Amino acid sequence: GFATLSSTDVGYYGSGIYFTTHALYALPYFSTKRKPAVLLSYLLAGNAYPVVEHPEGPDNHMGKVIKPGYQSHYVLTNNKGMPHTERSLEGVYDEIVINQESQVCPAFIYELDNSRFASALKFFETGKRKRLQETERERKRSKSQKKLKGEKAAVR
Description:
The structure is a single chain. This protein is α+β, with helices and mostly antiparallel strands. It contains 2 helices and 6 strands. Strands 1-5-4-3 form a 4-stranded mixed beta sheet, with no helix packed on it. It has a two-stranded antiparallel ribbon with strand order 2-6. The longest helix is centred in the last third of the chain and has 39 residues, at 117-155.
């Protein structure tokens, strides 16, 4: 069964089998394997509980079963696995926690060449910061261009 391919984890967001919709987010988990592979699966999350509590906060879900009345936990995270709290959607990943292997239908196994994982990991770990810096540079460049256009219009 599927459960023999994964391990249940006490985990920050509940006890269960963890999934993500972002391969880049999963990279640190499989990049060190000798023959890395990604298992793409159909997942029946059912009624997902939206986790917003910090894993170290007083109302955390660490190690707890899926909340009663729900079939999974869903959380938006940053690249460190902590709940995403910024307004920007830049660098947002997710985690889906289920507790029954019957909620999963494996579809494809992708065997990966790990020769480029080092650069991909570096991008994952620093990508958000770099993208924010690029956005800031672009914003300043745009502001300068608008100012320059305003000065030209005033001269005419």
